[in-house]
Amino acid sequence: MASLLAGTASLGENKKKLGMVAGLMVVLLVVLVVRFAMPGGVSTDSAGAHGGFGRGRPSLLDSQPAYLETIARIARLQSEKTYDAGDMRDPMQPLIRERNAPPAEPRGTEDVPISTELPMMSLHGVIWDPENPIAIIDGLDLRVGDTIKGARIVEIGFDQVVLTYRSRRHVLTVE
To answer: Does the predicted TM-score (pTM) go above 0.70?
Structure first.
């Protein structure tokens, strides 16, 4: 019985080894096909330029005068081009510069009237709870202390909400 078990164990090991060898053979075959059968599979290095494994493609060494001529033509074209940035900012300069002195004249010193009128909003309803009421304004559930469109909710009543907007009190009622 022990010899029978030893034989099956060795048979399993042989199958593993045979599978590994078959896998390596497949990988070797794929490498050879890619290397020699596919167009552009073989790189044309200096051995290829001198009759080695090359497939007739010229190497960089074979076309050196044409290559240098192309580089010179590109350099001439680039030197002929000019670029006028106009009033655009130089992208290589930092966006924020350190100031040693305050600016000469502050911007925006015009007296612009500030509207204290409440932005457009509507009170859809109130979920009344004496300890924690909730106001539904523009579809949002809000409590005392929450803000909407810059207005802070100060008080929520049974059918109205008191808001402060830019230091003025406004009352919204259920529509």
So the answer is: no
